[in-house]
Write a structure and sequence with these properties.
The chain is about 55% helix and about 10% strand. It has helices spanning about 15-35, 40-55, 60-70, 75-90, 100-110, 120-130, 145, 155-165, 175-185, 215-225, and strands spanning about 5, 110-115, 140, 170-175, 190-195, 210. The structure holds magnesium ion.
């Protein structure tokens, strides 16, 4: 009997890279409006280079990019860049198709809901607030809870202990085969591969179910619960 639905956050509930691209694009637009002379594509590549190397968000990445590309940090350009970044980020932070109606249906079926994310606590909660999904979840496990990232089974074990359920009573959904599936599977948790996420062409995924639309999770859980 499936009692709990756990899900990955980035690229499973929402398109993280769409958000990132829109944030950086708008940051550059705002800086160009104030007088940035660096070519758009150069600035774009620089911010992403800094992001990939350090995984730092928003303010520090823009500050560093201005320093690298203009030899200093103009306060007006920085302020415009930060506001542009936040504006672009917020406009593009929304869910994949059918995320809300799926979660709503699972709640109606009496399931508990949870998130297992490799992101640190602050940005993970921040993104859930911006998606409007924070109140829906009974548990949110982030990197800071265990100090371990998927595919380690530890974040899943943490959720199992907190929710006091058996692994076979959980269905977990994630978009990255190597990271999302093995840890959950090793504990005996049922797994769904989110083909709508960042790895639509992944093969093989090792997951028990492979779905293109999040709403199909409802049918998977009904099917699993019928066989109990
Ligand atoms: Mg993911």
């Amino acid at each position: 009997m499936i009692k709990v639905f756990l899900t990955d956050l980035d690229n499973t509930l929402s398109d993280f890279m769409r958000m990132k691209r829109a944030a950086v694009d708008t940051a550059i637009d705002f800086m160009v409006n104030i007088g940035l002379k660096v070519p758009r594509s150069e600035m774009y590549d620089e911010i992403f280079k800094i992001y990939r190397a350090t995984h730092i968000e928003s303010q520090s990445a823009i500050e560093q990019a201005l320093l690298n590309k203009t030899g200093g940090v103009d306060r007006k350009l920085l302020a415009a860049g930060i506001v542009g970044y936040q504006r672009g980020r917020d406009m593009s932070t929304y869910t994949y198709p059918h995320v809300e109606i799926t979660l709503k249906e699972l709640l109606r079926m009496g399931l508990k809901l949870g998130v297992i994310s490799d992101a640190p606590t602050e940005p993970a909660y921040n993104r859930l607030v911006r998606l409007g999904l924070l109140p829906w979840f009974d548990i949110i496990v982030t990197f800071d809870d265990t100090g371990k990232r998927k595919p380690s089974p530890e974040p899943f074990q943490f959720a199992i202990e907190k929710l006091k359920v058996k692994p076979e009573e959980i269905l977990y959904c994630g978009d990255w085969p190597e990271r999302d599936i093995p840890g959950a599977k090793a504990l005996g948790i049922h797994t769904v591969f989110a083909r709508w996420g960042e790895h639509p062409d992944a093969l093989p995924t090792g997951a028990e179910f492979d779905l293109k639309d999040m709403y199909d999770i409802v049918a998977v859980i009904k099917k699993l619960n019928k066989s109990y």
